[in-house]
Amino acid sequence: MKISVILGHPYEKSFNSAISETVVSTLKSNGHTIMFHDLCQERFEPILSNEELVSGISKDALVLQHQQEIKEADGIIVIHPDWWGQPPAILKGWVDRVMRENIAYTFPVGDSGGGLPIGLLKAKAGLVFNTSNTPEERENEVFGDPLQRIWKDCIFAFCGVTVFDREMFRIIADSTMDERQMWLNQVSDMVKKYFP
């Protein structure tokens, strides 16, 4: 299968990078084709211009590549930290520019966008791996785990990807090497489960 792997973290030695390396190596060992993108290393431009917004068409070669790959992907894996209960700006910009109408979703004929969307992505599953320094109890009781809602319902389900799973690793700032290795093993197991 073709699997799109998107990393949204600016620090090349972050635990997010270690997660992406584990994801890629696990997918390779299972014989999959990987379309890996480190958005920060690629210098992906996250700002959706007014021209691109109105026309629905990008002239940016990198955006066009991402759009083509996301349409072809049999699976999508996203890796990023939890910043203010959201993905980092570069990843939000990726969603804004890549997951566009007529690429990732559409609406029925005659519907100008106010009705129910029709997901266009063929991906069989979407996985998200997050890191956080917020304790789980506080995340759930105070913030309501916004990343779960954003990725599961607002993005993947909206675009037709109904099989979804997500894992949050915490607390990164105080984690030991043993904990991190255990988490990387969890990443590998989860990837194998959905993309054997």
Give the key terms:
196 residues; alpha/beta; five-stranded parallel β-sheet; two-stranded antiparallel ribbon; 8 helices; globular
Write up this protein.
This protein is an alpha/beta fold. The chain is built from 8 helices and 7 strands. The strands form 2 sheets. The protein has a 5-stranded parallel β-sheet, with helices on both faces. Strands 4-5 form a two-stranded antiparallel sheet. The protein is globular and about 55 Å long. The N and C termini lie close together (10 Å). The mean pLDDT is 95.
Describe the protein's topology.
Blueprint lengths: L1 E6 L7 H15 L3 E6 H4 L7 H6 L5 H12 L2 E7 L7 H10 L6 E2 L11 E2 L5 E8 L3 H8 L2 H12 L6 E7 L6 H18 L2
Helix pairs in contact: 1-8
Sheet with most strands:
5 strands, parallel
Order of helices and strands: EHEHHHEHEEEHHEH
Helix content: 40-55%
Instruction: Tell how many strands the DSSP assignment holds.
Output: 7
Strand order of the largest sheet: 2-1-3-6-7
Amino- and carboxy-terminal Cα gap: 10 Å
What is the molecular shape? Answer: globular
Q: How confident overall, as mean pLDDT? A: 95
Derived structural class: alpha/beta
Instruction: Report the portion of residues in β strands.
Output: 15-25%
Count helical runs.
Answer: 8
Cα-atom Rg, whole angstroms? 17 Å
Low-confidence stretches: none
In short:
By secondary structure, the protein is of the alpha/beta class. The protein has eight helices and seven strands; from the N terminus they run E-H-E-H-H-H-E-H-E-E-E-H-H-E-H. It starts with a strand and ends with a helix.
